[in-house]
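Kindly inspect this today.
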Amino acid sequence: MLKPFEIRTPLNIEVRAGLNVGDCVLLSGSVYTGRDTAHRRLFEAIERGENLPINLRDEVMFYAAPTPARPGQIIGSIGPTTSGRMDAFTPRLIEAGLRGMIGKGRRSPEVIDAIKKHQAVYFGAIGGIAALTARCVRKATVAAYEDLGPEAILRLEILELPLVVINDVRGGDLYRDVMRRNC
C-alpha cells in the first residue's frame, strides 16, 4: 500500500492539483461540518446576495452532524453522511469558493462538472467508524446556524483524518473508474 499524502487546509490550488483519484490522504487543519439544512441556508443566502456567515474560500466541508460530546470529550461520534443529499446546493457553494468536500457516495454530474470547472476535490470518508473518526478532532466550535443543534455548522480542527480522493480537479471519478473495471 502506498503511503498516504499528508495535507493541510486550506486547500490551495497546488495541493488540489497534486491529488488524483484513488489517492489516500491524511487531512489536518480546519474543516466545517454541514448537512442538508445548513447547505440550503448557505445556498439561499448566496441566491439573495447576502454575506455568508462563514468564508468558503479554499475551505473544506465535511458532510456530517456529530452526536453530542460526553463529559470530557471534544466531540461525539462523527461520520460522513450521503453526499448526494447536498448535490442540489453544491455547485453554487463551489462557485462561491468551497474547494473540498468530505462525505460518502457518488456525486451528480452537475457536481462533478463544478468540481472540474473550479478545481475542487471530493474526498470519501470511511463510514461505520464514527467513534474512531472523532479521535481525529482536536477542537470543535459552532461557526454558524447554532439553532440547528447537531446540524449547525461547526468548525473543526482535525489531525490526520483518513480520506480517499473520489473526484479530482481534472474531473476524475473513482466510482466511474471502478464500474468500468467491472469489479
